[in-house]
Design a protein that fits this description.
Helix content is 45%, strand content 11%. A three-stranded antiparallel beta sheet has the order 1-2-7. A two-stranded antiparallel sheet has the order 3-6. It has a two-stranded antiparallel sheet with strand order 4-5. The longest helix has 36 residues. The radius of gyration is 24 Å and the shape is globular.
């Protein structure tokens, strides 16, 4: 008799636990859906990562900006949803400072292991054929993969360069564009950004007797290639990196 009562008690406990798990699961699902539907309940970083994507801007040295949509009207609509203070976001505003701090903190501290990552190929929408203009200096264009998606291999070099990005968003969020990477000095204070890249990668560029850089053609070509690949490295980092 005792055994039957004990068995019934355990069975009742199991049923109550199952009901509790179902209720909690439904609550979590409803809460998650509401969070996705209501931008105001998501953190500013979550809203940016789900709505904004990195694009290559071929100005000066070439750099990366966050844009929501290539259609200006649609882009501004998304920015207004993501940033409630969008119309007042001049360089000196607290909203701009908070957003830039959030972006910089993410790229300085989030973790992404080197490896292969599947990426959406929206770059085809603004490419000329299969290439994107690199910069204002006439360097060879960036090759864009074919297809709607592609696999990109993030390396330790890409991660080191991401940690040394010179952020441009502090100049304000204008015209529905967040300048992630400073177009002129993408990795530091040097206009000749190869020097900053070498420093970020733990490498050196030798100088002649007049202290002028005498970078080899191979080294310069490698830095150009790495700089162009940062578009895809940043895309992978923005999509897959996790904060500690």
């Amino acid at each position: 008799m005792y055994g039957d009562k004990h068995h019934m008690s355990r069975k009742g406990t199991d049923i109550r636990r199952l009901i509790l798990f179902i209720v909690l699961g439904l609550f979590a699902s409803i809460y998650g859906l509401n969070r996705l539907r209501n931008g105001g309940s998501m953190t500013i970083l979550e809203r940016m990562r789900t709505q904004l994507r990195p694009y290559w801007i071929p100005v000066e040295s070439g750099g990366i900006a966050f844009i929501a949509d290539l259609d200006e009207e649609k882009n501004n609509e998304v920015f207004a949803r993501v940033f409630p203070d969008f119309s007042e976001m001049d360089p000196s505003s607290k909203a701009t400072r908070d957003i830039c701090t959030t972006i910089e903190t993410f790229f300085r501290t989030a973790v992404l292991p080197p490896g292969e990552y599947h990426l959406e190929n929206y770059h085809r929408l603004y490419a000329h054929g299969n290439t994107i203009q690199f910069d204002s200096n006439g360097n060879p264009p960036i090759d864009i993969p074919e297809g709607k998606s592609f696999v990109f291999t993030v390396t330790e070099d890409h991660i080191r360069l991401i940690r040394h990005i010179s952020f441009g968003c502090w100049r304000g969020i204008r015209d529905g564009v967040i300048e992630l990477m400073d177009y002129k000095r993408p990795y530091g204070d040097m206009t000749y950004y190869d020097i900053d890249m070498a420093d970020a990668l733990g490498e050196t560029i030798p100088n002649d007797e007049q202290r002028n850089s005498i970078e080899s053609d191979d080294q310069h070509s490698r830095y150009l290639r790495l700089h162009g690949q940062m578009l895809f490295a940043v895309q992978a980092f923005w999509q897959y990196a996790v904060l500690p």
